[in-house]
Automatic annotation (TrEMBL):
This is RING-H2 finger protein ATL3L. PROSITE patterns: ZF_RING_2 (PS50089). It comes from the Eukaryota. SUPFAM superfamilies: RING/U-box (SSF57850). It comes from Panicum miliaceum. The keyword NADP does not apply.
Amino acid sequence: MSAGAVLALQIAAVALVAALIVAVIVAAAWVGAAVHDGDVERALGAATVMTYERAAARMAGAPAPEGKADRCAICLSEYAGGDELVRVVPACGHFFHAECGVDGWLRARRTCPLCRGGLWPLP
Ligand SMILES: [Zn+2]
Ligand SMILES: [Zn+2]
């Protein structure tokens, strides 16, 4: 084997290793994003849509960090009644009218519109 051929093989080997490293990094980033999106969809599942009455009862046991829970922070109107459907942020328990577009906010920002906390409690 000539010196030129050996050099070409070495360059090919280095390029192959570099490509493998890039592939692993891309795959890891993709898996990470997929898990994160799964968390968001889990936070936006049927389990976090409930009646105002239930959501308010959940909040009653927890300290309210700011604001009152009788007003939707998105449309700023008071909740009409006990069986109005609201979306609850799992991490902090804050809730908003299910119809006020909070799902779009949560998908885009992944934080609570009221307290800016994450959707899920930190591990
Ligand atoms: Zn609202
Ligand atoms: Zn919150």
